[in-house]
Design a protein that fits this description.
The chain is of the alpha/beta class and 493 residues long. The chain has helices at residues 48-56, 62-76, 79-90, 107-110, 183-194, 210-216, 263-270, 297-303, 318-333, 338-353, and strands at residues 2-16, 19-28, 40-43, 96-104, 141-145, 164-170, 200-205, 224-228, 230-237, 244-253, 258-262, 277-281, 308-312, 363-367, 407-409, 424-426, 449-451, 456-457, 468-470, 475-476.
């Protein structure tokens, strides 16, 4: 699925006398942008943060989450911005999605869980809302955090040549206060998913310590970085009621104790190593406070130049983290975008854990790139066009005119209009005409589909069903012309 961007800016935050307000403006969308003087002003409800603490503790059922999600949805898309959203969604083609990029220009709004935003469908009667109104559970919607940085957007294209290298780091300190995680299962899922991907080399490191993390970076570029284990955001109450200030950490294994590895140090270590995607399957790695810029693990890695980073803004059950990771990598290696892979992971949690589990909204995606497909599929060509793509009645033409005129090959080859110069249409059964003996055109092979004013065929072969060559000067070239072609307590992370 191709995603079109809708850039949503939240700015001009002010908090006075217990009231917080800010401006919302659509900077860009498929249908245009919103003038600065037409920005919507939003006032946050005074009880919002208290309700969010209940969500964080996992004490809301589906209907209560919908009610909270409506507040977040209305705060994210007030009237004018909602119009841009609705119109943008309406104009998408069947193979397109909409990527909502949150440009949060104030840290005071960055710690809100916008991933739970809910917008009721226009045909839904009041009081009959269901989960389909949550934006991030819609496969055609992607909600991402787009950090406002003084550096260009990144790319998922790998650095250098050879197979991609994936570093998988697993840590589970056997000390009081930390649940035992099923990291072996998570590693097996990754290895099984990537087993048939010859272009990816997986290097796994268990019982990760600081030294092991350091060693894992010595094997060359680490295009993909995956951490599975515990994470923690250590802090205290902020100056504003309901806020938290602190720092994010990965929890590594130490000498008879847990070793808190800071976001700052991790960002320093991964920077400049070609990392294109970082997946942090640990609690609170996607959390940040509303005061400091880069205290969270995910924001710190984004600032370090990693284009795509996935983390968790709250605690997450171990089983749900495993389900998310499995679906995420299966989608990614199947040619899906990072956006779609995250949605697949969310839907896996929702499906397996039930509607009253809030873990589907815990993952956050920070993305600073337009092209989000890490493993693109090779282009495919339909070898046999559908009957309605052909018209009737034209006999097969001479196969000698590739460079100068229209050519149809095969008994059933038909065209729907005038044949332009250089058009070659191969029908069924095309194999009855052997072009190998024709010196002017020995180069067309099965699956060729070449478009352009100077279309050329470099390789030797024969015309078969589905070959199409279009161009005002289509001709057969030499080899040198070849184009570069039951409920129980769950373990937390």
């Amino acid at each position: 699925m191709n995603y079109r961007n809708l850039d949503l800016q939240l700015s001009d935050y002010r908090a006075e006398n217990g009231k917080a307000q800010y401006a919302v403006r659509v900077l860009d969308s498929p249908i245009g942008n919103q003038r600065a003087d037409a920005a919507d002003v939003v006032v946050l409800p005074a009880d919002l943060r208290a309700r969010l603490r209940t969500l964080e503790r996992g004490k809301l059922d589906l209907l209560e989450m919908i009610a909270l999600g409506k507040t977040l949805g209305d705060s994210l898309f007030p009237q004018r911005a909602r119009w841009f959203l609705d119109q943008s969604r309406a104009m998408l083609s069947d193979d397109e999605g909409l990527r909502i990029r949150l440009r949060l220009e104030t840290y005071a709004l960055a710690d809100l869980p916008w991933e739970y935003a809910y917008l009721s469908r226009v045909d839904t009667p009041a009081g009959q809302e269901r989960a389909d109104g949550f934006l991030v559970l819609d496969r055609r919607i992607s909600l991402v955090r787009y950090e406002v940085l003084g550096q260009p957007a990144g790319t998922l294209a790998p650095v250098g040549t050879g197979p991609l290298r994936m570093v998988v780091l697993l840590a589970n300190p056997a000390v009081p206060g930390f649940n035992t995680l099923d990291l072996d299962r998570e590693l097996r899922n990754i290895q099984e998913t990537l087993h048939d991907m010859p272009d990816i080399k997986v290097d796994s490191y268990t019982h990760a310590t600081r030294q092991i993390l350091l060693d894992s970076m010595q094997g060359g570029s680490a295009h993909l970085f995956h951490f599975a284990g515990h994470g923690e955001f250590k802090g205290g109450m902020g100056q504003a009621f309901g806020t938290v200030e602190g720092d994010g950490y990965l929890v590594l294994e130490g000498d008879r104790e847990a070793d808190y590895f800071s976001a700052e140090t991790l960002a320093l270590l991964l920077s400049g190593r070609g990392v294109r995607l970082a997946m942090l399957g640990a609690c609170e790695t996607g959390r940040r406070d509303g005061v400091n810029a880069w205290t969270g693990v995910v924001p710190a890695l984004t600032r370090a130049g990693i284009p795509a980073v996935v983390g968790n803004q709250y605690q997450i059950k171990d089983s749900n983290a495993i389900a998310f990771s499995r679906s995420f990598y299966r989608a990614l290696t199947g040619g899906e975008s990072v956006d779609a892979a995250v949605t697949n992971g969310r839907q896996a949690i929702f499906t397996l854990s039930g509607p009253d589990d809030r873990d589907w909204g815990v993952p956050v995606l920070h993305l600073r790139t337009d092209e989000s497909v890490l493993f693109p599929k090779p282009p495919s060509v339909d070898p046999d066009p559908e009957p309605d793509q052909r018209s009737s009645g034209k006999p097969a033409a001479s196969a000698l005119n590739i460079a100068t005129g229209g050519v149809e090959v095969g008994e059933k080859a038909k065209v729907t209009g005038p044949v332009a110069t250089g058009n070659v249409i191969a029908g069924v059964p095309a194999g009855e005409i052997d072009l190998k003996s024709q010196p002017l055109h020995p180069g067309i092979k099965t699956g060729d589909a070449i478009f352009g004013p100077e279309a050329r065929i470099p390789e030797v072969g024969e015309i078969k069903t589905g070959d199409i060559i279009i161009g005002a000067g289509a001709q057969v070239g030499d080899e040198d012309d070849k184009p570069k072609s039951k409920k129980r307590k769950k373990r937390k992370r």
